[in-house]
Amino acid sequence: MTAVAFLWHMHQPYYEDLVTREHILPWVRLHALKDYYGMVALLEEFPEIRATFNLVPSLLIQLEAFAAGQAHDRYLELGLKPADALTPDEIAFIVQNFFSAQQQRMIEPYRRYAELLGLRGPVSSGPDVQSAARRFSTDDLRDLQVWQKLTWIDPSYLAGDDRVKGLIEKGRDFSEDDKALLRTVELEILNAVIPAHRKRAEAGQIEISTSPFYHPILPLLCDTEIYKRTHPNSAMPRHRFMHPEDATDQLERAAACHERLFGRRPVGLWPSEGSVSDAMVPLVAQAGFEWMATDELILARTLGIDFNRDAGGHVDQPRRLYAPYRLTVGDRPVSIAFRDHALSDMIGFQYAGWNPNAAADDFVSRLAEAGRRTTTQGGGEEPTIFVILDGENAWEYFEGGGRPFLRALYQRLSGHPELKTVTMSEACRTAKESLPSIFPGSWIDANFYIWIGHADDHRAWGQLAEARDVLESASQVDGKARQQAREEILIAEGSDWFWWYGDDHSSAHDQEFDDLFRRHLRNVYRLLERPAPDELFVTNISAGAQAASQVDPTGLLHPTLDGEDSSYFEWLSAGEVDVREVSGAMHQAERPRRILTGIRFGFDPERLLIRLDVAERAADVLAEGYSFALTFLEPEGIRVAFSGGDGSVRATVAVRNGGPDGWTEQPFHGQVVADTILEAAVPLADLPGAANGPAVSFVVTTNDPAGAEIERQPAARPVRVDLPTPDFEARNWTA
Question: Relative to the CA of 644, which of 164, 202, 313, 728 has its CA 20 to 30 Å away?
């Protein structure tokens, strides 16, 4: 029998400014409405399934405050304010920020929410926002206030709660009473999250583990110089940070928090970002933790081996990977488990676009095959496969918030003849093999580059170290103020601030994360009655995933549509947009194949002309089952898809209809050819409403053979190009 240990990691950084008491971003509250409650509540349907939920204390204490009505964020306050009392600035904020949800799964399925997004259109600057805000009536704003929260409500409520079902069915023209009703549901769910976990834990179905309190990288708190183990020639922060006592404090606080909330001290630890080193192991043991976990690449580096996978994704040394180990650094051992990052990433990144039943069948077959291969390899022990991943962000990309997939997965695992689910403690009790040391690194590439490898990271670590030194020297300051300043330091030690620095991850809220990090450090100086360094008032962001730069067309186009770059001149007057890789909140150990490399666009007198450059021959990519689509925001609700095979390429036009499948197919009267490149001419007549607007705007998506979206370009904002006027060429004529 093969044991399968799931660990669902639930985490948010600490968003509250301890001076103003405002929570800067709403993600604790919104994810609690869906994932933090629904993920554990779902297990009541499957009593045979056992799992581990890792709940980070920085999330839990904010959740407590929101559940008690003692916390506030601007999104919450403006969502509850009467729509007819909103000021112009508040309206602009709502119009800009109340669409922060995954568009395909959380906006487009709801006709009114999608309609409001179309009314807003793309916004990239202050004038854009102000212009969009003027298009919203009071009724539009009230509907947006409701939908911004309603789309986050747990799927079980959407399906079974009459209050929520009534709001969904109503769809539009909401009242202030509807908003109050939704607030009642919100508080009900917020107050159910912690009891739901405690109930499942007391029933023995789940284990609740923890992470260091504010989610810091423990090895870097112990000593930032550990980074040189993997990057000996790297530049480093201007001041070394070495405070293992802070690491101990973060661990002790985490254990105490869980004991208060769940009635027992946790015995398991997911160290933040799976980050380990020899220096942090004794601290973990001293805090009473019996097991911890990290990534398979750490095990490979520790053993001095490589884990290779065949074409089916099966690891070549399963007996070494699919077992817990005993790690002894100092005088107290800790069990340690290593996640299969390929299997974990299948859930986190691959299955979102699959049919839920097909995805569950595929995953369970992979687990069973991995168990068989381990048994065949010998060793006598039953294998244990560790599947560890983010338990919240992935589900935004799944049908039904991931519940259809999870139900299908749990159904297949319940009573499976070869597989049994176990908690992490149950899995780690079987540890036999010992490790005398551990390679220092995180779950990403077995190093700490994400958090200390960029110039922006270096600046931030230097600022943190200097503020920490000021705290040490401020012995004469009032004890309460010193305690508050220390709390600000501990918050600033969290990994999330450093995650968003540099060019490998970006979101729409980079500026807020940067500002909040520096605000925590400024608060340290304020509390200690010291002047804050000037640089803490200036952004640390020097690079990042910014909006792609766009060059507009300079003339009408008349290319020969043959799928070849046949002439330098035929696309010379086209517009062009940068195509670049942009990562988001989740990091994938093995990135999906990158296909699209260039987008050019323009017009002839009657058609929108598109050229897509790909990393490989376009016809071959289409023959493999990949496809491309133009998804329009202006005119809203139109999609033109290109697919092919057997040497041909097809185009289809679909218009959103709000029906069960969401789209109605329309005839395509244009032309599309693919060979080395893909060239297409889309008649403006095929884009209802285009002729009446000043511009068209669109994004280009790439979908894999299963239909899952793997690329969206541009990533930050759509291509937007003005329709040509009669004097277009005269205005752009050059000699």
Answer: 313
